[in-house]
Amino acid sequence: MDYDVKDINLAEKGLEKIEWAEKRMPVLRKIRERFSKEKPLSGVKISCCLHVTTETANLVRTLKEGGAEVALCASNPLSIQDDVAASIVKHFGIPTFSIKGETDDVYYAHIMKALAFKPNLTMDDGADLVGSLHMIAHERFEALHPAVRQWVETLSEVERKEFVDNIIGGSEETTTGVIRLKSMEREGVLCFPIIAVNDAFSKHMFDNRYGTGQSTVDGILRATNVLFAGTKFVLAGYGWCGKGVAMRASGLGAHVIVTEVNPLKALEALMDGYAVMKMEDAARIGDIFITTTGNIHVLRKEHFELMKDGAIIGNSGHFNVEIDLDTLEAMAVKKRRVRGMMDEYTLSDGRRIYLLGEGRLVNLACAEGHPSEVMDMSFANQALCAEYMWKNGKKLEKKVYSVPEEIDKNVAALKLASAGVVIDELTEEQRIYLASWEMGT
Ligand code: NAI
Predict the structure, then answer these.
(1) By three-state DSSP, how is residue 161 classified?
(2) Atom number in ligand 1 closest to CA 318
(3) Which of 11, 165, 171, 395 is most buried, most CB within 10 Å of its CB?
């Protein structure tokens, strides 16, 4: 089996962690039990480009139990857990291509390995796999990473076409990936249907909010060990992720300041009890800055120029573009790593700015990502959407689809059941009342 992991001997340690996560993923476990009996994914090849974590290990083994052949590469060079990658190869027989800290060249070479697997379904977190595929399909070679471009240029036109022709459909895990895919759909370049798993209620209301909320704070704490209580914590972007981060930072006693560009979200933050202001004003007073916008250069030169000595900055949005890192590098007269995942940038006037996790998702680069309990729901959606796409993909158009409502509700119902929670059902009288327009008082 072809694979590329840091050290296969780390597999036993990885397995212990995967089993610990498995215990806290009852919904995915239930799906795996059914998949192993029914084999609904028989005959399908799935290429996954996901954060290589213990929860992902449980997802890919579920797909395999369902009868699929699976290949896995990373969706971020810093979110990889090397022991988990080794175990996925050794214990679950899944070709895995990921090494924590891999360079961009290696990152994209690994994506190519997952593509060369010739999948029928794709599963992405951030759309790097599908994005590369589309650049190949539309011969936009200049937009490809140079490492990929070199490889693609050695292939014949027929071989290049085969990549897309084999594919029935795909799914996308995160907000940023969905934004990229919707822009492909708008431009009429999307080559196959994709389900936006992120948009399921049972995904973003829990994973983005509670998962990113807890794990972002976890990442900051592991990287810095600072006391939150009493600090001014500046959060850029009050979307699903931002709400969770603000809630948890506030719970630890930080004074949360929100910056936004959407008046509705800004108003929501204000009424949730946070201070709201422009980044230009927040930059002067903040102690810790976290971005969760999915946007580019939210923290940039004009903000670095205003920050206090000792300001800590990090990002929990998908790509490492939310902080203008090139400018920070250019402004610094000195840079050194002061703790495992924190770099100190000294500016010409002597002020120091501390960057977490090289500007990559702080919760995955500096901690272990979302807790298994929330990934249970996200990945239950992924597994069920793979089954749905394999059954129905040929009937779908080249569009971005929502997760079917029955899957979304089923995941929530299974999660409640696994927690032993039983909820009310509508009475007949209530059903009639809700369906009628004549009944007033
Ligand atoms: P969202 O769309 O719910 O929220 C983004 C918010 O940022 C919006 O309210 C938007 O108005 C605001 N925003 C955009 N530009 C801004 C700017 N210049 N300044 C201030 N605010 C701005 O998106 P969601 O779901 O919260 O995701 C945000 C990012 O986090 C995405 O990149 C997503 O892929 C990523 N993500 C990261 C996770 C992690 O594990 N760290 C997990 C899930 C999502």
Answers:
(1) helix
(2) 32
(3) 171
Edge to edge, what strands does the sheet with 45-50 contain?
4-5, 96-98, 69-74, 45-50, 121-124, 169-172, 194-196, 400-402
pTM attached to this predicted model: 0.93
d(C-alpha 155, C-alpha 158), whole Å: 8
Best probe residue, ligand 1, of 243, 318, 377 (max atoms within 8 Å of C-beta): 318
pLDDT tens for each residue of 169-193: 999 999 999 999 999 999 999 999 9
The reported pLDDT for the residue numbered 145 is 87
Residue-wise pLDDT for 195-220, tens only, equals 999 999 999 999 999 999 999 999 99
- Taking the domain 210-365, which CATH number applies? 3.40.50.720
363 lines ligand 1 (CB under 6 A): yes
Phi-psi label, residue 150: left if phi above 0, alpha if psi -120 to 50, beta otherwise: alpha
Q: What percent of the chain clears pLDDT 90, i.e. is strictly above it?
A: 91
Nearest CA to ligand 1 atom 2: 239
Q: Is the CB of 145 under 6 A from ligand 1?
A: no
What was the pLDDT predicted at 331?
A: 98
Phi, psi of 302 (to 5 degrees): -60, -25
Atom index in ligand 1 nearest the CA of residue 51 equals 40
Closest CA to 383 of 83, 50, 78, 82: 50
Q: Which CATH number fits domain 8-203+371-418: 3.40.50.1480, 3.30.70.100, 3.20.20.70, 3.40.50.2000?
A: 3.40.50.1480
Per-residue pLDDT tens digits for 336-358? 999 999 999 999 999 999 999 99
Closest atom of ligand 1 to 126 CA is 34
The answer, yes or no, to whether any atom of ligand 1 lies below 6 A from the CB of 366, is no
Residue 370 CA: which ligand 1 atom is closest?
40
By most ligand atoms within 8 Å of CB, the mutation choice from 52, 125, 267, 293 for ligand 1 is 293
